[in-house]
Amino acid sequence: MTAGSYLVGIDVGGTFTDVLAYDRSDGRILQAKVPSFPGEQWRGVLDALAALGIDGSAVSAFVHGTTIATNALLERKGARTGLVTTEGFRDVLEIGKTRRLTGGLFDAAWVRPRPIVERELRLEVPERVAADGSVLRAVSQDDLAQVADVLRNAGIETVAVCFLNSYRNDENEAAAVEALRALLPGIPVSQSTALVPERGEFERTSTCVLNAYLTPVMSGYLDTLTAALSGRGLSAEVNIMGSNGGAMTIASAAKRVAGTFLSGPVGGVTGVCHVISALEIDDCITFDMGGTSTDVALIHGREPRMSHDNQIDAYPLQMPQLDIHTIGAGGGSIVHVLQDGTLEIGPKSAGAAPGPACYGRGGIEPTISDANLLLGRLPTDRALSGGLILDRDCAEAAFQTMADALGVDDVVVLADSALRIAVAKMAGAVREVSVHRGFDPRDFALVGFGGAGPMHVFLVADELAIPNVVIPRFPGHLSALGQMLADMRCDFVSAWGGRLSSLSVAALNAEIDTLIRRASAALTADGIPAERHRHTVNLDMRYVGQSFTLPTLWSDDYADWMPLRAAFDARHAETFGYEDQANDAEIVNIRLVSIGDVEKPAIGMADIADDDPVLERRPVWFGDWVECPVYRRDAMPPGFTVIGPAIVEEAGGTSVVPPLWRCEVAADGALVCARDD
């Protein structure tokens, strides 16, 4: 049993659960990787703590990244949901915006996904709020009683309430929520304006429905997790990583489930922000490749891009979320043959059980991990993190079956082809968050992490002509590190605004002060003292006549609109290549981001092993077999240089350095790499 007071971050992925713990008594970092348990994520959390030998009573802070909400939606395993809405608007959820949310424009076989709430469970009440917020018709308690009877008899488990124009005035909506909670005891009721007080009936309805649909699932998981951790002696507050880049309490996560999508990948982006700050890098693209998926995001000026107009699967989600793009290409992604005889990668994954064929646990389909093993990029005589020893014979058998079916003679060539396809898909994901957002990826460093990220990041960089790559310390546990270091965060929005020519700065500041008071009260309730509160205000702005907005930073030093208008014009020109100074600009929303700073340890350089950094030399495939040195990362001191081709092994990750790349160990232990053309 290890003594000490630990800060703990735990990231549950589709294949592995990663844990990182900082011992405040001596500054040590402990890490472990254990298999995940689909459907029982809490078991992986307990196993991860047990792998470190940490007693729950020694934990002082605990942040957990979870895929519960994401998985439940993708697998359609949420609760039976009812929707209560304004008379005449029950079909908003189904009509949407009459555009295809998934599927290609020319896909003749495309079918719109079914709404989460069946039509007979979408109930209307005769209430009405006008566009200016005036109440034209109050909600009736008798009507709500009838609605409650219908929902109760239908066996609903959760309810969403979304009324027309409630973002202007939620008086009717709040009254309906209060009444339904009294009429349906024990059944959670989600209120749209408590989640998204913004324009956009379809997006707000969809967000509220998603929140309601997943609330019982998340609440059940959090209750089980809390009980299990309490049984292990943990009394520290358990926080959940939010999709906005900050942590939230369990109580908040249970109410705002829609704010926990991409909880795990968000931790990785947060971890990268700490890494590039230490390296004094301003702009980078994160490349997080795990066992099931690859997640990429763009960080500009050390700030990750944020999105408020998101889509999870086929459903709009109008909540603040880091702009992360995900594809089904991970180390466990299955290589398969399409009907036309071409190879495809994923999105189906071998997962944690049985896992890739090379795990020797019964998997028979070839995966990306099997391909890397056949290409000599993974060891067969040393255990990986978690004690796993890979079986080359099983990997070869999996690819041989496919080779026989395709009439291919060489499984190595087939494995290399599969890897090239995977790299092309991952490069496409990087283009999505860079080129498609108006950025040139060659101006950014590519930061590779996750269990499989360092193995493929250089190949993706070569594909995109990106000249710089960074491999952080703890690459296989960086998401857990980001969670461990995450600040508390809450977001507030007010649908306030109009044309600048008709608004006053004083009125704007008064509305901002109201939001800040609400945010400070929330952070204080979460245990963060006032001196640790930080507030940032952005205004959603557009030119008159536009339907889209751009966030523009507001400073309380502005005495008039001139500096704001100049900042917006510059932002518009940077994004779209022009500015429209002859047109008036308008504010659509005020967005407040409030941060509660938490304790962050100063993580120093790890002790360097006093051993030869070269473990061995072995042939590795780079278009041909090349004899490569294999390095121990824990024996590489600051300033140590690696020239590709080479392999760098460490707990939780393996870096594959191709020819023409030079890597140097930075002062904080990160590998800073550049093409050496």
Care to describe what's here?
The protein has 677 residues and is α+β, with helices and mostly antiparallel strands. Among the domains are: 108 residues, ATPase, nucleotide binding domain (Nucleotidyltransferase, domain 5, 2-Layer Sandwich), CATH 3.30.420; 131 residues, Rossmann fold, CATH 3.40.50; 109 residues, Dna Ligase, domain 1; 62 residues, no CATH class. The chain is 31% helix and 27% strand. It is built from 16 helices and 36 strands. The strands form 9 sheets. Strands 13, 14, 15, 20, 23, 24, 32, 35 and 36 form a 9-stranded mixed β-sheet that branches. The chain has a 6-stranded mixed β-sheet with strand order 3-2-1-4-11-12. A hairpin with a 2-residue loop joins strand 33 and strand 34. Helix 1 crosses helix 7. The longest helix is centred in the N-terminal third of the chain and has 31 residues. The radius of gyration is 26 Å and the shape is globular.
